[in-house]
Design brief:
The protein is built from eight helices and 16 strands. With 336 residues, the protein is of the alpha+beta class.
Length: 336
C-alpha cells in the first residue's frame, strides 16, 4: 500500500512538469494505482474477517436453524434472518439463537436446550468449530419433575434432547459448508478449561467413562427431509399412531382436524398399511415442493388388498417444513 501511494504521489508531481497533452494520462495512471491498492486492502481485510468468522457490518444474514419437530426424534427447520453487527461472530450468534429456541409462530418446533444454558464461546481451527456451553446444558430438562434423575423415562428423554441439541448445532454450523464438523465442550465459566462430554450423557447404555463426544460431522438422517417425512407418515400409518401422523399433515389452507376427529376418521376408514418403500425424492427449483416415489401394499377392512406402484407423492413446505396434504393421504388410502 505504501509503495503504491509513493508511486501515485510521484506521478502526480510529474503532472506539473509534464506537457499539457500528457497530464491527463498521468492523472489517470495515478488514480488507477490508488484504486487498485484500496481494492487489494479491502479484499485482504474481508478475507481476514471471514477467517475469524466475523461479519464486518450491520446487516441481515439469512440462516437455517434446526429445532425439534413436534415430539419426534427429528429436527425441523426455521429459516430466519439474524441481525449481525460489526465484529460479531456469526457462528456464535447462530448457536445463541439455537439455544434461545424457535419463534413462537413455528408451532410444530420446540427447543431442546435446558433453561439457563449459555453459549460461553465459539471458536474455529480450520474446518472445525469448537463450541463451549455452560454446564447447565447437562442439567434438568425443561418440563421434567424434580426427581427426573430417578426416572428412566426422563433419563432417556434428557439423552435424546442432548443428542438433538448437538445435531442442531452441527447442522446449523455446517450449513453452506461454513465448517465441516463441530466439537462440543462444557465449562462452568469462560475462565475454566472446556471439557469434553462423556458419551453416557447422550446414550444411557454407555458405561465407559473414557468414551467422550468426538468432533461431529453433518448427519442429514436427523433432518426432516422429504423422504424422512413420508417415511414418518407411513410409520405412523403402519402402527396406527394417528397422534404422531397429524403434525406431518396439512390441509391446504384450511385447518387440520382435531386429533379426536382425525382418529375417528382413520378408524372409520380402517385401512391397514402392510408394507412400503419411499424414494429419496426430488425438490422443485423454488424449494417449496418435493416429489417422492412410493411403493406400498394396503389392505381394507373387508380384506381386499391393493398395490401402490411407483406413485408420485407430493409434499409441500409448511412453516419451512415438509408436510403431506390430507387430500393426498386419503387418495393413498382409498383406491379405485
Amino acid at each position: 500500500m505504501k509503495k503504491a501511494l509513493f508511486c501515485a504521489a510521484l506521478a502526480l508531481a510529474l503532472v506539473i512538469a509534464a506537457e499539457p497533452h500528457l497530464r491527463s494520462r498521468i492523472v489517470h495512471y495515478a488514480g488507477a494505482l490508488l484504486g487498485e491498492a484500496a481494492q487489494r486492502e479491502a479484499v485482504q481485510e474481508s478475507s481476514f474477517s471471514r477467517q475469524l468468522g466475523g461479519y464486518d457490518r450491520t446487516d441481515m444474514l439469512d440462516v437455517t436453524l434446526y429445532y425439534r419437530f413436534a415430539n419426534t426424534r427429528t429436527l425441523g427447520v426455521q429459516r430466519a434472518q439474524l441481525d449481525i453487527r460489526r465484529e460479531e461472530t456469526v457462528a456464535k450468534r447462530i448457536v445463541q439463537q439455537l439455544v434461545k429456541g424457535p419463534d413462537a409462530s413455528y408451532e410444530r418446533l420446540s427447543g431442546v436446550f435446558p433453561q439457563g444454558t449459555q453459549v460461553i464461546s465459539v471458536t474455529a481451527n480450520g474446518q472445525t468449530a469448537f463450541v463451549t456451553l455452560s454446564r447447565d446444558f447437562l442439567g434438568r430438562p425443561d418440563g421434567a419433575p424434580a426427581d427426573w434423575e430417578d426416572l428412566a423415562v426422563w433419563q432417556e428423554e434428557a439423552a435424546l434432547r442432548r443428542r438433538l441439541a448437538v445435531q442442531s448445532i452441527v447442522l446449523a454450523l455446517t450449513e453452506g459448508a461454513r465448517y465441516q464438523r463441530v466439537q462440543l465442550y462444557v465449562a462452568d465459566t469462560d475462565d475454566d478449561i472446556p471439557q469434553r462430554i462423556e458419551m453416557a450423557w447422550f446414550d444411557t447404555s454407555v458405561t465407559d467413562p473414557t468414551l467422550v463426544l468426538a468432533p461431529s460431522p453433518r448427519d442429514e438422517q436427523a433432518m426432516l427431509t422429504p423422504q424422512r417425512t413420508l417415511n414418518m407418515v407411513m410409520e405412523a400409518w403402519q402402527s396406527r399412531d394417528w397422534a404422531a401422523m397429524l403434525p406431518l399433515l396439512h390441509a391446504r389452507g384450511a385447518q387440520l382436524p382435531t386429533l379426536s376427529v382425525f382418529e375417528a376418521q382413520m378408524d372409520e376408514l380402517d385401512i391397514t398399511l402392510l408394507d412400503y418403500d419411499a424414494s429419496a425424492g426430488t425438490v422443485s427449483f423454488d424449494g417449496q415442493r418435493a416429489t417422492v416415489v412410493l411403493d406400498a401394499q394396503i389392505r381394507s377392512r373387508e380384506g381386499g388388498d391393493a398395490q401402490i406402484v411407483r406413485e408420485s407423492v407430493l409434499l409441500t413446505r409448511v412453516e419451512d417444513n415438509w408436510a403431506l396434504s390430507m387430500d393426498t393421504l386419503l387418495q393413498l388410502m382409498i383406491r379405485d
